[in-house]
Amino acid sequence: MNDKPEKFIDENGLRLDGRQINEIRPMTIKIGVLSRADGSCYLEWGNNKVLVAVYGPRELHPRRLQKSDSALIRYRYNMAAFSVEERVRPGPSRRSIEISKVSREAFEPVVMTQLYPGAVIDVFAEVLQADAGTRTAAINAASIALADAGIPMKGLVAACAVGKVDDKLVLDLNKPEDNYGQADLPIAMTQDGDITLVQMDGDLSQEEFKQAVEMCKEGCRQILEIQKEALKNKFADDTAVNIPDDIDEVTYVEAIVEFDIEEDEYPEEDDISGESEDEDEDTGSLDEEGEPEDIEEEFIDIVEEAADEEEITEGSDIREQ
Amino acid sequence: MEREIVLPGQLLSENKTDSGPGTYVKDGKVYSLLYGIKNTRNKIAVIPFSGKYIPSGKDFVIGTVIEVTPSNWIFDIGSPYDGLLHVSEYPKRVESDRMPGIMDVGDSALLRVKDVNPSMKVELSMRERGLKPLKVGRIIEVVPARVPRVIGHGGSMVSMLKKETGCEIFVGQNGRIWINGNDSDLDHLTEAIEMIMQQSHTTGLTERVCQFLRNEKDVADAEESIDAEEDLAEEEEAEDEDESEIAEDTYRKVDALLDETDE
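Structure tokens for the assembled complex are given below, as produced in the milestone run.
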């Protein structure tokens, strides 16, 4: 197997697949592709194809795994047997267990697990076709699937990798760059720029590392835009009906025990029980305030913290083979 | 009039006092926790598009028995947490060995959440008017986040459904709806509820569902004899008047309620 290209970057500064060094591969996202799951997402990123299903929060068995004060997140990263040329042996491997662990930890800071004590949130990420960067692709998809499942999160998580080929840093490695490159640095971060996952394979100097994190930040910002776009457009298909007006009156006002209740015993105290105070409302005449929409601009400086604050699993096996 | 779709982590307000359900405060600013629709009224709330039912006190729910213990029925209430109904919370005194005779595994019941403790132990109660074990009817499951839509503004949707179909309806906060009536009415009602679910984010839904049910009824009526049809038509008229009365009444009540809470 010696299909190592002679040059990764041509004289015009373009890479093997014609991208700039700081350009990510095209990404397409479909939401809600699995009807049985509570939330799901199918994501294509270059030649990567990833399907993520989210279940939960649901009851956790065995009970000994339950955490009394928060929900447990279970993340299962798995490569389909047919996802690469050479058949992947089914079942958990050293590599997939490791990726599952670090990916789970990438989500733990953003998911509001404390709201669901004793429950579990299951995330299943299946790689259908692999072409370098599947863990980042899976994280990007999982982030959307979690949102689709209605799970409270402090923000979305975006992930992407920076690598080094021909002594140059490049964003979002493809297969040959990953296999024969000098380094690979996948990073996941929240929209505030807080890093939740860092791994590294190969060598980078300190200078390069800082620069790589900067590049990654920009890549993640672009990915976050794509994620947001996808979520906002989920209901764009039925634009005809997308003019909500008196929608979702959060009136828990009538919790409705209405059989044929006679007027006099209409349970008045039920009406105002609990939520109604802040949630009752009238016929949907609400004033939209011009809200600032873009917060993602605020990718704050994280380079410094990134290095010392976060878990760095150096020398871990990044290769997709 | 359009409500904005918001995403987790989206900035909603600079003022931390605006924080309502489905939001969180960081550095004095309000951000969304959920993927849903922003609701700006008094406080900013985010209503999720989906999500599980999380029990809270005083909710009405529909549960299914999954286990009978010597002193408790354990109910599946469509949430990550099971509910406990202690025998003492059953309206009548029951001996332990008779419990399965009243409700056995697989039976459903209309219940109320009495209390939820911090470790999410859910205590249920049946000591309230209208709550009972279910022997007849059907249960429809819907997304809990869309339950308010089935109830409608001040119960307008649910009372309309009742008037139009003549069925009994109980809407549980956990996304289960119990309906009871004759078979063809139940079929129409089921279709109507499906329609509500599909179009839950649209405006003027009550009207459309009402129209839909009337059409259905017309079709059904057409199949009957002319005599019966006439009778029905009369009844229908009577019902219509009835409905408007009730609706008005409901609105008055809601208005009064709103006034109270506004003060």
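The mean pLDDT of chain B is 83. Chain B touches chain A through 83 residues (CB under 8 Å). Further analysis is deferred to the final report.
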